[in-house]
Design brief:
single chain, 227 residues, Protein-L-isoaspartate O-methyltransferase
């Protein structure tokens, strides 16, 4: 089996694209970004042989890398354009930021765990992605980032909505993507999570869409040096 520069075989690349299509991903630019971003580079060494599969993988600090199809579904919902400036809250391994960097002009990604932020910077630098800035800090606190953004993606769920200062950072026509926690159904202990897309149609005009179930985990505030 022939391998590419990132160690993946042609068969593995084809399998990944098939997985994305099965969950409804049709944006060719998103599919190409996933195809050309080596997920194994961002996975812990002991799990790199599993990086080509459509499964979530554990990483440091008790966090996880989402399954590629789940992440692709989220990023496609952003409807990214090459001129966009994107804010990502929850860097994790850095894989999502690397994919975003192939789709947008500039990506600012914020991670609350210092270990994860540091490791992500090294991996992003290894890919020579100069349009990504990885920041260690509390992305849910005012002052963590500055400027306006065309797209904001928060890899977490809220009981209501993200902090208002983040939504205020959206440019007109901008989109924020996040999870929302809803009451657990009768007889269940775990609350439901729904993926929500919020669009800023004008200064005080907003429209919101429910994109279906998701599993992101509740938002956590504060920054942590290590876990």
């Amino acid at each position: 089996m022939e391998e590419g520069a990132d160690g993946r075989t042609i068969e593995e690349r084809a399998a990944l694209l098939l997985q994305l299509r099965r969950v409804g991903v049709r944006d060719l630019s998103v599919m190409r970004a996933f195809e050309t971003t080596p997920r194994a580079l961002f996975a812990p060494y002991r799990f790199r042989d599993l990086a080509g599969r459509n499964i979530a993988l554990p990483i440091a600090c008790g966090q996880t890398m989402p399954a590629p199809a789940d992440l692709a579904r989220r990023l496609e919902a952003l409807a990214l354009e090459p001129h966009h400036r994107v804010l990502e809250i929850g860097t994790g391994s850095g894989f999502s930021a690397a994919v975003l960097a192939r789709l947008a002009r500039e990506v600012v990604t914020v991670e609350r765990y210092a270990t994860l932020a540091s490791d992500a910077r090294l991996r992003l630098a290894e890919l020579d992605l100069a349009n990504v800035e990885a920041i260690f800090g509390d992305g849910l606190a005012p002052g963590a980032v500055s400027g306006g953004f065309d797209r904001i993606v928060l890899h977490m769920s809220f009981r209501a909505a993200p902090p208002q200062f983040l939504l205020d950072a959206l440019t007109p026509g901008g989109v924020a993507l996040f999870g929302r926690l809803e009451p657990a159904p009768m007889g269940e202990a775990r609350p439901q999570e729904r993926l929500r897309r919020l669009r800023r149609d004008g200064g005080s005009l907003w429209s919101e869409a429910d994109l279906g179930p998701c599993r992101l985990g509740a938002a956590l505030e504060g920054a942590a040096r290590m876990m």
